[in-house]
Design brief:
Structural class: mainly beta
Strand content: 35-45%
Oligomer: single chain
Order of helices and strands: HHEEEEEEEEEEEEEEEEEEEEEEEE
CATH topology: Neuraminidase
Distance between the termini: 43 Å
CATH class: Mainly Beta
CATH superfamily: TolB, C-terminal domain
Strand order of the largest sheet: 3-2-1-24
Number of strands: 24
Shape: globular
Number of helices: 2
Largest sheet: 4 strands, antiparallel
Helix content: under 10%
């Protein structure tokens, strides 16, 4: 049985706990069914940014979108709570997970809602899997034919792993990894669609023994690419295919090559110790978007969605909120 937290699947509860901890710290200081490789990778222009915002009245997230300068901020899918937004490769649609107002007291699995950004029109697919495995699917393949999914069952850890389904109807569930009793969370496809990156951990939010892995799109040749303790539940593969960005639990951004070499901390150009989360590349690879928490003069903290150049310079807040903004994703603009 999947937990209610997983069904919401912005991983908002875990992230909110992390933000509370940050605030306290600041106060103290393969297969045929798998996605097909694409022939070439052409960097896209930068379009709009989607993200999750916690709504205290619902005790859940809603999905918002804005221009890359923070303007034109509005809800994308106001009908229901939702989380885990990811843009389609062409930047016209956003996939989110939503319970569609239903209860998950007995069993939870995610409905993938595909929303057209320009109109708000949406369609719902319910991925195959339940009741044996609950799946949560919003990560598009580069050719837009499949979603990468988290799969699991609270009562049967043997099914925990990364899966794929068709983007058209949620069918053709294919298992790619076996977590071996741990928890595998999908993070991103490589830009050419031949590989994917995921986290493997003993507990939630990369707790316990945890690291990042890369595998072929059919699930073969699984390779650990970070030392134990270097892990994230979200992250992003750079558009040029050379680096994977993620945030360690201490709030530092790191990048690593897909073969596990050149692990390096990305220093953000802020005036004081800052804490990042949920990092993603811009479609043209020149910038990153992320959750940022910084101390304020009144010994509190400020948190919101921010952008920076890919080298960590030119940090700019796009949102600030008394609740919690996170899970930002940057869509492609017109080519």
């Amino acid at each position: 049985m999947q937990s209610k937290q997983q069904a919401r699947n912005g991983r908002r509860v875990v992230a909110a706990v992390g933000t509370i901890a940050i605030a306290a710290t600041l106060a103290l200081i393969g297969s045929a069914g798998a996605a097909r490789p694409v022939a070439a990778v052409v960097p896209a222009a930068n379009g709009m940014i989607a993200f999750g915002r916690y709504d205290p009245a619902l005790d859940d997230d809603r999905t918002w979108v804005m221009h890359s300068d923070g303007s034109n901020l509005h809800q994308l899918f106001p009908e229901f709570s939702s989380g885990g937004p990811h843009w389609s490769p062409d930047g016209t649609q956003v996939a989110v997970n939503s319970g569609l107002g239903g209860s998950c007291d007995t069993f939870c699995s995610g409905n993938t809602v595909i929303v057209t950004a320009a109109t708000g029109a949406y369609r719902v697919i319910t991925p195959a899997g339940p009741p044996a495995v609950g799946v949560f699917c919003t990560i598009w393949s580069p050719d837009a034919t499949h979603f990468l999914c988290e799969g699991g069952n609270d009562n049967d850890a043997s099914v925990n792993g990364v899966y794929t389904v068709r983007a058209s109807d949620g069918g053709d569930l294919v298992r790619l990894t076996n977590a071996g009793g741990m928890r595998d969370l999908p993070i991103d496809f490589s830009p050419d669609g031949t590989k994917f990156v995921f986290s493997r951990s003993e507990g939630d939010n990369c707790g316990g023994k945890a690291a990042l892995y890369v595998a072929n799109v059919d699930g073969t040749q699984v390779q650990r690419i970070t030392p134990w303790g270097f892990c994230d539940n979200t992250g992003s593969w750079s558009p040029d295919g050379t680096r994977i960005a993620f945030v360690r639990n201490d709030g530092f951004i790191f990048t690593v090559r897909p073969d596990g070499t050149a692990l390096a901390k990305l220093a953000l150009a802020t005036d004081s110790r800052s804490y990042a989360g949920d990092v993603a590349w811009s479609p043209d690879g020149s910038k990153i978007v992320f959750l940022l928490t910084v101390p304020t003069a009144s010994h509190g903290y400020s948190s919101g969605i921010a952008t920076a150049n890919s080298d960590g310079t030119n940090v700019q807040f796009l949102t600030t909120t008394p609740t919690f903004d996170h899970d930002a994703a940057w869509g492609a603009g017109a080519r």
